[in-house]
Amino acid sequence: MTQDMRKYARQTHVRLIAGGLLLLFVVGDGLILLFYGPGAAVTGLLCMLVGLSPILLLSVFLVILDWVVKRANRD
Known about the structure:
With about 80 residues, this protein is an all-alpha fold. The chain has one domain (about 5-70). The chain is about 90% helix and about 0% strand. The chain has helices at about 5-35, 40-70.
């Protein structure tokens, strides 16, 4: 029985990133809501989304680039 360690590492990275984002948005924005109110929580949520948008765009670009390279190297 062999295990694909690259698949396992990729899955672990995805889970760690998802958990970190979940903590950032739920705990971070929850604390803002608790201490400052709903108006500040909405502003904090918008700021977090705007701050993460360059990372998201870069990640999408890299996934598309990886897909193109894999299709080109299929020959």
